[in-house]
Write a structure and sequence with these properties.
Low-confidence stretches: none
Strand order of the largest sheet: 9-8-11-15-14
Structural class: mainly beta
Number of helices: 0
Mean pLDDT: 89
Oligomer: single chain
Helix content: under 10%
């Protein structure tokens, strides 16, 4: 008598994906990911592997790991949130249970911040060079990020020193938007520089975007340090005034002067002379005042004012001068 052993195989392989834990926080910076796993079949033996993405069409059969205990599949990735499904078959065609891995975040790009600007509630095309007293600058930002923003990072530098106050930062509930507010107040005076970046859920920080402005709420101060004698000035001689302009923040834009006095008995004044413009910060100035048009033996006044680059105007400084064209008379008495 002869005998024949017949194996009845109606059960699919034992099948598992081993590196599922690595996927909980997502896949970042990779255009493909290698899934690894184990499989076994004690009867007919393992034969083919399959996978699908987002419940789509199954892949072609992968046969190179037939009969082996371990398998490894590199799968090309696209950005987004995906579902991966795997299974294996034995030589008898039995299929294993499907292993499904859901909600896998795939994120290639780091977060990108973009800025817009408002001054006193009005949108402006670019950050203003200067913020003056009573004005408010809002630096508004939005962050492009597929899988969530963890934090907004702001580095603020005032007059060359990193600071954490003098401005406010408000973020949206999802950190995908933010607003930096800078008030035009004396406490904020100075040059401000901001570097802003965002960090995503995988602790990846995008490139920083930079912006800068100057808060200037203080008007320039003029000091006349040298002037003609207030009496007996000869109007035919150009009178010279010297002085300094103090400006701490935006720098001096221009120095102006004008002269007021009597011309042919009628009070008159010259136009503001803006011949001296774009002068240096902390300047020592010299102004030559021409007085020939004014009446002899009268008083004139010379006025000075300065404007800084932010548009702040100094107090007007007034200097008086008496014009005397009468020659002294010497008389003798016996």
């Amino acid at each position: 008598a002869t005998s024949k052993t017949v194996y009845v195989d109606t059960t699919g392989p034992e099948f598992s994906v081993d590196n599922v834990e690595n996927l909980k926080n997502g896949i970042y910076d990779y255009s493909a990911y290698t899934f690894t796993g184990s499989w076994s079949d004690n009867l007919s033996g393992t034969k083919e592997l399959y996978y699908s993405i987002d419940e789509g069409t199954a892949s072609d059969a992968i046969t190179e790991y037939a009969g082996q205990k371990k398998w490894s599949i590199e799968i090309p990735l696209t950005e987004g949130v995906h579902t991966f499904t795997f299974c294996g078959t034995d030589k008898n065609g039995n299929e294993s249970d499907h292993v499904t891995i859901k909600d896998v975040k795939v994120d290639f790009a780091r977060p990108v911040a973009a800025l817009t600007y408002e001054v006193d509630g009005q949108t402006v095309q670019s950050v203003p060079s200067y913020i003056t007293a009573g004005s408010t600058l809002k630096i508004k930002g939005t962050v492009t990020e597929t899988n969530g923003v963890k934090s907004i990072n702001v580095k603020a530098v005032k007059n060359g020193t990193e600071v954490t106050d003098g401005y406010t930062l408000a973020t949206g509930s999802d950190n995908a938007s933010f607003t930096i507010t800078l008030e035009g107040s004396n406490a904020s005076d100075g040059k401000w520089e901001f570097e802003i970046s965002a960090t995503d859920g995988a602790d990846r920080t995008g490139d920083a975007v930079s912006t800068s402005t100057v808060v200037d709420t203080v008007k320039p101060v003029i000091a006349v340090t040298k002037e003609p004698s207030k009496l007996f000035a000869d109007k035919s001689v150009t009178q010279v005034y010297e002085g300094t302009i103090t400006e701490e923040n935006s720098g001096i834009d221009e120095l102006l002067y004008r002269i007021k006095g009597l011309v042919n008995g009628t009070e008159s004044e010259t136009e503001w002379d803006s011949a001296i413009v774009k002068v240096a910060e902390g300047i020592t100035f010299k102004v030559a005042a021409e007085l020939a048009q004014f009446d002899e033996n009268t008083d004139v006044k010379v006025y000075f004012k300065a404007t800084d680059n932010a548009g702040n105007e100094s107090d007007t400084v007034e200097k008086a001068l008496s014009l005397d064209a009468t020659k002294p008379v010497v008389s003798f008495t016996s």
